[in-house]
Design brief:
Length: about 290
């Protein structure tokens, strides 16, 4: 159906409906959100806002609304206005989940082969999936632009628009990140195969340490696949060990300098001694480590 005013701002009252007992706090008052009928801006009746799932320091909030025909669309509430995010071509359901200080919205398309997206200034950017993954899901975005979620069955952080797969607990078969703070800590969960002692486990990741582990995993996998010589891998691993040692001594500056040198070497050797796809993964993971040190 038609969404009147799609992509445009419409006046929005101080308090609005999100079904159930959800509440928003406004200066001097607490309002039950069930007092507002969200159907008014649209020619296709919206039954309810599923939830408001993200809010930034300015009080801008994002979430998802449903039309009478069941179509889901992201919404953004900012400066007293409600904006329905435009339809993403080729999809019918967009779920918006978080917004940062810059007004960047992240979410995913609710389909079997769903895509994670970043929405800003009226434009969508699809976030790349891990190699071989058929789906991706973005859950949170920091003010610095780090995006956490999942791709395929791996917990993922997108840094500079590229996915970095994070390590999982030994024996875990799948996982996802659900939230992240501004100091490099992310929370999520992992699943274990049937018959394991644990079926599900909540996890807190230190993104700096997880990025270093991810770099080591990528190097080991590249050697095993014959994509990188053992000598080249060992040279790069020694740099990672030096960065870890510097961090262990509390010398963040030295660790950052080593990681920058690591990243510069990888970029310089991309397509030469290091396959381009591997170089991209290593560069993204080292950028993640740097983002949580600097």
């Amino acid at each position: 159906g038609k969404w009147e005013g799609e992509g445009k701002q419409v006046p929005f009252p101080s308090f609005f409906c999100s079904s159930g007992s959800s509440r928003l706090v406004s200066p001097g008052a607490v309002a039950n959100l069930a007092t507002f009928d969200l159907r008014f801006p649209f020619t296709v009746a919206m039954t309810h806002a599923y939830t408001l799932t993200g809010v930034n320091q300015a009080g801008d909030a994002t979430g998802t609304a449903a039309a009478g025909d069941g179509e889901l669309r992201g919404i953004l509430l900012a400066d007293g206005n409600l904006t329905v995010l435009p339809d993403l071509p080729g999809t019918t359901n967009e779920i918006a989940v978080d917004v940062n200080a810059a007004g960047q919205v992240v979410g995913w398309t609710n389909e079997a082969e769903g895509n994670a997206f970043l929405y800003q200034d009226g434009q969508y950017q699809l976030l790349p999936k891990l190699p071989g993954a058929v789906s991706a899901n973005a859950g949170r975005i920091t003010d610095d632009g780090l995006i956490v979620g999942s791709s395929g069955e791996r917990p993922v952080v997108w840094v500079n628009g590229q996915p970095v797969a994070l390590p999982m607990s030994a024996g875990a078969s799948a996982g996802a990140l659900k939230s992240v703070n501004e100091v490099g800590q992310a929370v999520g969960y992992v699943f274990y195969p049937p018959g394991s002692a644990l079926a599900f486990q909540t996890v807190i990741w230190n993104l700096r340490d997880a990025a270093i582990v991810s770099l080591g995993e990528q190097l080991s996998a590249a050697v095993a696949a014959g994509l990188l010589s053992e000598g080249s891998a060992r040279s790069l691993e020694s740099k990672l060990e030096a960065a870890e040692a510097a961090m262990g001594r509390g010398n963040a500056t030295a660790a950052a300098n080593i990681l920058r040198a690591f990243r510069q070497h990888v970029v310089a050797q991309s397509g030469k001694h290091i396959p381009a796809s591997l170089a991209q993964g290593l560069a993204s993971a080292s950028a993640l480590a740097l983002a949580t040190i600097d």
